[in-house]
Design a protein that fits this description.
Number of strands: 5
Helix content: 55-70%
CATH topology: Glutaredoxin
CATH class: Alpha Beta
Bound molecules: 2-acetamido-2-deoxy-beta-D-glucopyranose
Number of helices: 9
Number of domains: 1
Strand order of the largest sheet: 2-1-5
CATH architecture: 3-Layer(aba) Sandwich
Length: about 190
């Protein structure tokens, strides 16, 4: 009995170790109104998520080429983009990483002005998200996103930038820019090839 029990236990441990450590870390550095960022979500990440979700540890960082200034932030596509970035940072702080955060981003990136329907679909209270956006919490989250973006991308040179396993790779990035996210992911997770 003891033998069977420990065998079961060790296979359970093996399974959980595998699923905890084998995932590919995928960090997406993007901007809320950037057409190439929107394409990455609507054409690659979102439609393929059901296939890849079990293999990927996803981090979404809505900041891109924005920068913090005394009065707030400046964004490549103007104030509405800054609003979208902070809106997503606040929503993500209330959603679990992975599927829940991605579902929210998929809704928003497909329809960037449809704030209330994306909140509703993710079960978020508009008042909570507004409080985050106006209380200084949203600014803090965006400042963290700024540091993350500047440390882990070359600039970024291009938006969106995708970093695999926390190490920027220029040749992967070029392929992402040509629309081959799934092909690059397969390099890191052979089961997805
Ligand atoms: C980046 O990816 C390419 C293509 O897979 C690979 O040949 C190269 O060794 C990688 N570079 C680094 C620094 O890991
Ligand atoms: C490898 C793979 O399954 N890619 C799919 C990702 O989603 C797009 C859009 O639905 C498909 O065209 C690809 O075949």
């Amino acid at each position: 009995m003891v033998g069977v029990g420990s065998l079961l236990l060790s296979s359970l441990l093996l399974i959980s170790t595998r699923s905890t450590f084998a995932k590919v870390a995928v960090s997406v550095y993007y901007e809320s109104l950037c057409p190439d960022s929107r394409d990455l979500f609507t054409q690659e990440l979102c439609p393929n998520w059901s296939k890849i979700g079990d293999y990927v540890h996803l981090k979404l960082v809505p900041f891109g080429k924005a920068s913090s200034v005394a009065s707030g932030f400046q964004c490549q596509h103007g104030p509405k983009e800054c609003y979208g970035n902070i809106f997503q940072s606040c929503a993500f702080s209330m959603l679990q990483p992975g599927t829940k955060q991605l579902n929210f981003a998929c809704c928003y990136m497909a329809n960037p002005y449809d704030y209330s329907s994306c909140l509703r679909r993710s079960g978020l209270a508009a008042s909570e998200v507004r409080r985050c956006m106006t209380s200084g919490e949203g600014r803090e989250l965006q400042l963290i996103a700024e540091v993350d973006t500047k440390h882990n991308t070359p600039g970024p040179r291009y938006v969106p930038t995708v970093v695999f396993n926390k190490k920027y790779n220029e040749s992967d990035q070029r392929k992402i820019e040509e629309g081959h996210f799934m092909g690059v992911l397969c390099k890191y997770e052979k089961r997805l090839c």
